[in-house]
Amino acid sequence: MKKIIVLFFAAVFGGVVSVGIYKVSEREDALQTTQWPTTQNQQAQPQASFVGGYSAPQNVPDFTEAAEKTVHAVVHIKTELRRRNSIYDDFFSEFFGRPYHQYSQPVIATGSGVIITDDGYIVTNNHVVQNAEHLEVTLNDKRSYEAKIVGADPATDLALIKIDEKNLPFLTYGNSDDVKVGEWVLAVGNPFNLTSTVTAGIVSAKARNINILGSNTAIESFIQTDAPINPGNSGGALVNTNGELIGINAAIASNTGSYTGYSFAIPVNIVKKVVNDFINYGEIQRAYIGVTIRDIDAEFAQEENLDDLEGVYVVSVVDNSSAEDADIRPADIILEIDGVKINSATRLIESVAQHNPGNRISVIVKRDGKILRKDVLLKNRQNNFDVVTAEDAEVFDLLGASFEIPSDEAKSKLGINYGMQIVELRRGMLMNKGVREGFIITEIDKSPIRSLEDIKNIIKDKRGGVLIEGVYPGGQRAYYAIGL
Fold it and tell me: Would residue 226 show up in a list of annotated catalytic residues for this protein?
């Protein structure tokens, strides 16, 4: 059995995946092991001159200023918890010798975080703080504080926490879209419970999808580096040589559990969006363009008689979606979004994920050899512009599902006029009862379900349980009694 150490998240793209931006393509071969921060330093070797037997690197950037800016804004996070999502079992088995749930005492886990405002907002990984009963943050000057979770987003593996303090050192945001492959970067964190530790490497690749988040709506578009990272670096800073934050370190690919492979960081442009949503709305406001897409490789280009391999191919367009409104059609090839070249489904997902419903984006498509510019007004998964509230999130966290309106084609095929379809299923009441993704809920306690509001209004006031009725895409009708 492959050894998987994941102090990391709990999407997977293969075939046609529905995430508002949908991907149809074969997955890259799975990494042999994906673990928590470690990698092997495979930096380009600088030219050296020999002085008295000492090899002195030449033309290497001076990292001292960037390191000085960063170390004081990176914190150590100690998490006390009594249970973990099952995805973390392998990690705790590896480091504690047996499954964590055999312990009667609380489990103590550690990670890193980055101060992003002078009044105590700190960004880290969701997997660092998930299920925490108590959080302790220690600054580089050894001051310690209790922290509270402001918001957590498993889809990006990001979380925002807060300590009560003023005039703190903090990092300024860079622009991850401007990051270049081959660029020098620094990784700063607290590996092995050490205080802020700085390592250097280069950007090895961008828009990496390593299929680790385990959710159809997860957003994976990592910056890959060879900066040495080890367990405890999770949630730490990836910065450029100017000391600007360009990513949050999240995972490693390794065969040993230590630094012997590559590390992966969440791009800061996604970080900025998640942080702003939590501060301004209390919940993530996710935008969707509403297309099913696939990468273009040589074989597919030959099958479809395409001129080149640029862009991503639009397989289908969701009814009433932003894409349909903008006259984006099946067989169009999306080349750019807001001036950023799109050469993979992962890159498209990253670009759209930086926006909120109601934002406009400029999309360049190629259709029958002609280049067209489309002005796209982004909507949410329900194809409207409604703001997701904390109350909404609480209801759907309880059920463990995300929903969208089924297509007119699906409703016609199944002979239904309404319903809400499950497009993502995670741990919760529905999964526990055996409900599967794709199920269309048509009625709850005999009340028709036409919108998310219908589900929310019925569930939030119920006590004891409800009867859920619906149909699967193959036509199988099903009934589930759900206890509340």
Answer: no
